[in-house]
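User: Please predict structures.

Assistant: First:
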Amino acid sequence: MRLKFSLLGAAFLAATGVGIVTLAEAAVATATFQVKLTITPSCVVTAGAGSDIDLGAHAASETNVTGTNSIKVNCSKTTP
């Protein structure tokens, strides 16, 4: 009985195309493709810890008001 069932099952699988994958069917497919990337030029400007420069309060008649802080400009490589 077991042999008859196995033969019947094998005949069904062969007729329907369902079943065991052969080595040729399991081969790896390869292809080529392009990768494209556009980098947008940009700059970032920061000043001091809070990105502000505080010159304090001065009279409107004052000239040459000075203050200190650090300013950092960071641009992408091709930014003009």
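Second:
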Amino acid sequence: MFEENIETREKIIRLAKKIESDLIAGKFNQIVSEYECDITEADIREMLNKYSKPLFLTPDNEINNVKIIKIKTDEKNTWAVDWDLWTEKGRSDLTLLLDVTKETDGRFVAHILDIHVM
């Protein structure tokens, strides 16, 4: 359950959608350059190649089902995001795992943890 305001949720969703779009477009180098990542470009490529089904954007009617959970820290506002990835046949077995932090200047910054097979 998301306990923050709608504007915060929308900013987190927008950031996750951008990463999803970059994954779909195969911009793996851009992803690891633009975001802090615990996985490499090769890891991303291998995971998506192993899965071997083309990804599609998450349907708009599924956005409300995205899991966003506030992480309790003393330093910054951070949320854990589990973003299910989709194929033409529906929800895939892959989930993009992110932490999103609101910086002191108001920017939202993503940290890509993994692409996990559920």
